[in-house]
Amino acid sequence: MAFPPGGIVDNVARQIQAPLQAALGQTVIVENRGGAGGTVAAAEVARAAPDGHTLLMVFDSYATYPLVYPKLPFDTTKDLQPVTQIASNPLVLVVNPKVPATDVKGFVKLLQAQPGKLNYASVGPGSSNHLTAELFKATTKTFVTHIPYRGGGPAQQDLLGGQVEMMFLSAVLAQPHVKAGKLRALAQTGAQRVSAYANVPTVKESGYPDFVVNSWVGMLAPAATPAPMIDRLQGEIRKIVTQPAFVAKLSEQGLTGIANTPAEFAQALQSEQARWTRLVKAQNLSLE
């Protein structure tokens, strides 16, 4: 596990832990090993024996590691191989309730009238909420000041307290705050609405048809792990995330099961890395 307890990666890992253990007939342990945006755990798994017993759970930020960390101690395309993306969820554009906007259109007008006055939080340069916010700025031709934090906890705390006004937050993490009225959801970033946010339009619906971003959790293994082991893991995870009860459980949280093939996962990684590389270059973003 590339991240500490409490986040979306940990959440998904613990949801599949018991059913995967039953399917494989062996103990499955979730070990949280955070640090350096998940690269500490990734480096350890890259060096691990390719026996199918040491696996890595990653967040969508894995696709941007080469952009953020130019001196990685491992190669994301050579030292680790994709097993499957397990689940995805949209990010949700949330604002502190003191912001006088109730939809994307009104929010964009507010930003255009006050360029640079409002701030947005992220869990750090190169993170999905950082790059999604920058894509939003480029798409809407607005300017919001980036305030990077060292983790999701501090970022959410300042967002709730009003020290920053907006954030593109994981649908899973935003849900309790939106339900409690502590944050206002203006839009979700997926191609379609998820049931957990049935009354919240997508950014696409709000007038920006090309704006689609999904956050995801996936599994990788050391590069030399035999193909039969990779295929079995992917197949068992597919069975788990397509069970009706499990689908319903994910849906309640705003999550959607994926369980794509290793080849499809590899293609998705390449596509995302290319997309964010174009944005970083076009906007001359600093990821330090």
General description of the model:
This protein is α+β, with helices and mostly antiparallel strands and 288 residues long. It has two domains: 8-88 and 215-283, D-Maltodextrin-Binding Protein, domain 2 (3-Layer(aba) Sandwich); 90-197, D-Maltodextrin-Binding Protein, domain 2 (3-Layer(aba) Sandwich), CATH 3.40.190. It is 41% helix and 17% strand. The protein has helices at residues 8-24, 39-47, 65-68, 104-113, 128-140, 152-161, 171-179, 227-241, 244-252, 262-283, and strands spanning 56-59, 80-95, 119-122, 145-148, 166-170, 184-188, 214-222, 256-257. The strands form two sheets. Strands 1, 2, 5, 6, 7 and 8 form a six-stranded antiparallel β-sheet that branches. Strands 3-4 form a two-stranded parallel ribbon. Strand 3 (119-122), helix 5 (128-140) and strand 4 (145-148) form a beta-alpha-beta unit. Helix 5 (128-140) crosses helix 10. The longest helix is centred in the last third of the chain and has 22 residues, at 262-283. The chain is globular and about 55 Å long. The model has no long low-confidence stretch (mean pLDDT 92). It comes from Ottowia flava. This is Tripartite tricarboxylate transporter substrate binding protein. Belongs to the UPF0065 (bug) family.
Overview in brief:
The protein has 288 residues and is α+β, with helices and mostly antiparallel strands. It has two domains: 8-88 and 215-283, 3-Layer(aba) Sandwich (D-Maltodextrin-Binding Protein, domain 2); 90-197, Periplasmic binding protein-like II (D-Maltodextrin-Binding Protein, domain 2).
